Amino acid sequence: MSSGDSLDRRSFLTAAGSAAAAATLAGCSGDGGDGGSTDGGDGGGGTDGDGSDGGDGGDGTSDQTLVYARGDHPENYDPQQTTSGEVAKVTNQIFDTLIQFAAGSGGQLEDGLATDYSLEGTTATLTLREGVMFHNGEEFTASDFKATWQRFTQSDYQYYLGDETRSGYGPFTLGDWIESVDASQDYELTIELTQRYAPFLRNLAMFAAAVLSKAQIEAMGDSQADLGAEPAGTGPFQFDTLDNPNERIRLTANGDYWGDGPNVGTVIFKTITENSTRVQDVINGASHITDNLDSSGFQRAEESGTATLLRKNGINHGYMAMNMARFEPFRDRQVRQAIAHAVNTEAIVNQIYQGFATQASQPLPPDVLGHNDDLDPYPTDKDQARSMLEEAGYGDGFEFELATFSNPRGYNPSPVQTANQVKSDLEDIGLTVNINQFSNFGPYLDYTSAGKHDACFLGWYTDNADPDNFMYVLLDPKVEMDAVPDGQDWVSFDTEGYSTLNVSGWANTDYMELVREAQRTYAEGDRETMYAEAAQIAYDESPWVFIDYAETLRAVNEAVVEDSYTVSSVGGPYLNTVELQ
């Protein structure tokens, strides 16, 4: 980002953010959604960034089928109803965003449905791409973005999605920042913000900011929650079939796509929950690509001879949150620090994760602006942990619940093993941990979003490669400052305005002031200093046990043409460019 009062397209275009047989599916509509804190959003398609029309408009599409294997199967594919990365992997093929992340970059932005954009003070101006068609036959114009924004955030809009239905992304992606949208010209957008907000252009590239069809929104009427059963975007692939009984989704090529590709005729997402089985599926050639690998899986892929392991530094964080709003002992900073000293995160990353992750020391991953290089991971010192518990008045220990998911996530590929490691470590200092294991991720997110946990495992893949996406989104409660009682550093989940993405209940006003000021600051150096200071506060106060930063790993079958699939730490998966032998 440039310094001063404005951010423009040039700054963002050059600045980085710190052999399967074709399967058939039986149609079956889905309902419901994931909700809660994201497990990773892989975000948007890709162009060359020069404002041109991009690729061949689908002329080179083959009749081949690309199969992507994953570990979970959500049933709703509306980008405004979910925070799940498993949903984003699919919706990113169907929808486009105004601005998008360049494939393989660490967060560099490029043209999407907009070909020019700038942010001056509190005004964002965008010029839109002409001649882009939605899968339902409607032409894309500025009014589609306006209707998208209104449906997601404006309670007085006739087709508002609803407070109970929309995802937690609504407020922090668009809702809290946009005052008005002028869509009076078909190919020009003027967006007035409620305040200076540095991450705004990056927010427009997030999967939750995917542009929906105004015609489809209006056609859904009072049934907005059903849009995810038949999503229609402008992306390289169009929705075909949702087969919930068999946990598969079928997409077909959009021959009128404005960008690069697609190069295959069909994409199938299929679910295989067991890591070992899913990796073997790729090795055998029944799937082409898979993700969320554990240590055994990536070693088998490397040694197979028929698959390749692709790896890239991730922009993510796996953590254990301690819920101060629910569990009184966690309100004592010494208790939280004692737990941080007792949990052997070095053993977790080296022995359980087998070295494809590194120990975390703070909320911000190393490749993000504001990461504080002076902070080291908490050293494992169980004697010190016992002493701190004694000083805090908990020398006799206490008992609490640790909620965990079961299916692998990139930031926590072995959640049950990790929970058992934490349980063992904390038993060594006199604490009793009861593991509450969830078999499905959606209900797990519902549970943690409701604040029913004492402690829980979660993680976050960056949505926009901006520090705000970690520091504000996950650890600021988003309540008014005066809603935090004097002398207290937590608030209850039912506080007005509270964001349940903050699953710790933490509300440290010094921290909140810093990250909110950093939002309003456009000078990169000043933002970096503020976030480094905020990271120090988070380190000292320990609302989380900072566990790991994980590499982004993908196993790819030899049938995929080399270099046609690009692994990205933000955005994607970029399936529009994939070619098969």
Description:
This is Peptide ABC transporter substrate-binding protein. 26% of the residues lie in helices and 19% in strands. The protein has 581 residues and is α+β, with helices and mostly antiparallel strands. It has a domain at 316-550: Dipeptide-binding Protein, domain 3, CATH 3.10.105.10. A hairpin with a 2-residue loop joins strand 5 and strand 6. The relative contact order is 0.18. Residues 7-58 have low confidence and may be disordered.
* Major sheet: 7 strands, mixed
Number-wise, the strands total: 20
CATH class of one domain: Alpha Beta
The class by helix and strand makeup works out as: alpha+beta
Please tally the helical runs, counting DSSP H or I stretches of 4 or more residues: 16
Strand order, biggest sheet?
9-10-11-2-12-20-13
* Terminal Cα span: 40 Å
Portion in beta strands: 15-25%
CATH-defined topology of one domain: Dipeptide-binding Protein, domain 3
Query: Architecture of one domain, according to CATH?
Result: Roll
Low-confidence stretches: 7-58
Question: How much helix is in the residues?
Answer: 25-40%
CATH superfamily of one domain: Dipeptide-binding Protein, Domain 3
Radius of gyration: 23 Å
Query: What does the average pLDDT come to?
Result: 89
Shape: globular
Family: Belongs to the bacterial solute-binding protein 5 family.
GO molecular function, one term: peptide transmembrane transporter activity
Pfam families: SBP_bac_5 (PF00496)
Keywords: Signal, Transport
